[in-house]
Amino acid sequence: MTLVPEKFDVEEVERKLKELEWEDIGLKENELLENYIHDEIFEKVFYELNEKKLKNLTEREISEVIGQVKDRLKASEDNVLEYLKHGVTLKVRRRDITFILIDFNDISRNIFFYGREIKFKGTLKTSNLTSPYSLTESRWL
Questions:
Q1: Which own/partner contact pairs does 6-13 have at CB distance under 8 Å and 24+ positions apart?
Q2: Cα–chain-centroid distance for residue 109?
């Protein structure tokens, strides 16, 4: 059996992601990120997806909502999939409001991006294996 350098597989994955309109946002290989949320992209897209729900809130309230959503995502790794599927419900002005993280009806409104061998603060490294978050995906990541 002939071994093929991993580089060719990585380039093929990258090519396929680009065909699917995933973006290369310039993350450097082996870059250490504080967490898996890319703040600038997350905030921009979060606002666009939830514009109608946010339009009557003050800038301070919007910042609080975005901060609470990020905190829930960071604190609840077990619930992230549920949040991605169903949104995050918060009490705002004494009302429960569900904020979406992905638009499943119009996928073009989402941003998906990738990075090579990205590392996250607090992840374990065992020999050549890194955490399952080494591949970065999502609209906010």
A1: 10/116
A2: 14
User: 57: domain range?
Assistant: 6-134
Confidence class for position 1, pLDDT limits 50, 70, 90: low
3-state secondary structure of 88: strand
How confident is the model over 14-35, as pLDDT tens digits? 999 999 999 999 888 888 888 8
Phi-psi region of 136 (alpha: psi -120 to 50; beta: other; left: phi over 0): beta
- Please check whether residue 127 lies inside any domain of the structure: yes
Domain membership flag for residue 130: yes
Whether 139 is covered by a domain: the verdict is no
**What pTM was estimated for this model as a whole?**
0.75
In total, how many domains does the chain have? 1
